[in-house]
Design a protein that fits this description.
Helices cover about 45% and strands about 20% of the residues. By secondary structure, the protein is an alpha/beta fold. The chain folds into three domains: about 90 residues, Arc Repressor Mutant, subunit A, CATH 1.10.10.10; about 100 residues, D-Maltodextrin-Binding Protein, domain 2, CATH 3.40.190; about 100 residues, D-Maltodextrin-Binding Protein, domain 2 (3-Layer(aba) Sandwich). α1 crosses α4 and α2 crosses α3.
Length: about 290
């Protein structure tokens, strides 16, 4: 006798109609009838007075119904409790990061995912300014972002790892007359065409703001959120772009020069961003500890 047979028996007792019980159980009537006969054979006892079409219980049937109903209810409660425990074990973590930080920290993130099989990790890739917005809007739980803090209600803990931040380079074709310079400032670039990151990125905002401060409007020929598309556009558009210097190690476009930006904003520290009201769980601590292994 198993729990399924008990459930079938109880359904027949409570409906007093084998056809109705079969419909409620989503099985065929012959399947249900066979299950009842098998149960009686295994118990070596009649559960119903078979000469009575109203499914009147025998003494054994009454005992099985009373005890069996309690067993089925306890079993169903146990299954529900076990399922709830499993659901509680499955946690979700929504992480935001830039494409640069994805390259620099993916080894640590991959290790975190592999060592936390019960955690569903969702990665969102965007610029740091946009990621700060997403933190405030509760679209992500934690983010690897650049300073400065632009949104109220968030906190960024500086990273004191091998990767503390990034310097900024002016990227331009080697055919550009400025390509022989050791460094370049915004005044040197005011007559250049720009391929720029969008204003979702710190460097997209930097170009616009420094232009205003130095009384010139940058000639932006193209904007995009993908740095690789920008560098591929420089030759065709005879343009320059501002990018984190670290991207040079991943660049495959030939005949480009990466020249340090000479500016007060030529370095951006990075850190781990959280909402100030966000509960820092054990899972979050474990993720932060993993990132700090960089």
């Amino acid at each position: 006798m198993d729990i399924r047979q008990l459930k079938y028996f109880i359904a027949v007792v409570e409906t007093k109609n084998i056809s109705k019980a079969a419909r409620n159980l989503f099985i065929t009537q012959p399947t249900l009838s066979q299950s009842l006969r098998k149960l009686e054979t295994e118990l070596n006892a009649n559960l119903f007075n078979h000469h009575n079409k109203t499914f009147q219980l025998t003494h054994t049937g009454k005992l099985l119904y009373e005890k069996g109903k309690s067993i089925v209810e306890s079993f169903d409660e146990l299954v529900e409790e076990l399922q709830n425990i499993q659901e509680q074990k499955t946690e979700k973590l929504k992480i935001g990061l830039t494409s640069l930080f994805a390259l620099q920290f993916m080894r640590q993130i991959s290790k975190f995912i592999s060592t936390h099989p019960n955690v569903e990790v969702y990665l969102t890739q965007e610029g740091s300014r946009k990621l700060q917005e997403k933190l405030v809007e509760n679209q992500i739980d934690i983010a690897l972002v650049s300073f400065p803090i632009e949104q109220e209600g968030i906190h960024i803990e500086p990273l004191n790892t091998t990767t503390k931040g990034y310097e900024v380079s002016v990227v331009l074709p080697t055919s550009n007359p400025l390509s022989d310079r050791k460094s370049l400032g915004f005044k040197d670039l005011k007559n250049e065409n720009f391929c720029s990151l969008t204003e979702n990125f710190m460097l997209g905002k930097l170009l616009i703001e420094r232009g205003k401060e130095l009384n010139f409007t940058p000639k932006i020929a193209y904007t995009h959120s993908d740095w690789e598309i920008l560098v591929h556009s420089l030759h065709d558009l005879n343009a320059v772009t501002l990018l984190p210097s670290d991207y040079e190690d991943y660049n495959h476009v030939e005949n480009l020069k990466w020249i340090p930006l000479a500016d007060k904003n030529n370095f951006y520290p990075i850190g781990i961003g959280l909402r100030e009201d966000f509960p820092v769980t054990e899972l979050i601590h474990e993720f932060i500890d993993m990132i700090k292994q960089n």
